[in-house]
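Request: When convenient, would you put together a sequence paired with its structure tokens?
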Amino acid sequence: MKSKLIHDAQGLRTYAVVLAIGDEISHALQTFAEKERLSAAQVTAIGAFEEATLAFWVWETRKYEEIPVREQVEVLSLNGDIALDEHGRPKLHLHAVLGRRDGSTIGGHLMNARVRPTLEVIVTEAPAHLRRKEDSETGLPLIHIDD
């Protein structure tokens, strides 16, 4: 993984982060977020994965149902955010739409993925802090906006 600060003005920072063959996206971006002390950022990316695990949140069970993707896929859209968890650490929340060779797509919450050949990520941090708190109704760590 390589990264570069490409914009820094009035508290707004934008980074280009490029992942290479074999990089695991969740680990790489978590490491990056901790190193840069990100607290309120948007993430977008395109590229390709050699494999991935997506998930779908099932309301009735309050659990994620995993969707294994065991093939080369294009990352058509990867979007998400980075906010602080209840302990003040950066927490990733990513969703992806992946394109298969036949043109079909699959999407969901991104649990993990291995890059091949590249993933080009843009991370934009706003000059504010977002915090996640466990929601009592869902059990999910949702962004809490203070009044």
Q: What stands out?
A: Strands lie at 2-9, 12-20, 40-58, 63-69, 73-84, 90-99, 105-125, 131-134, 141-144. Residues 25-36 form the longest helix (12 residues).
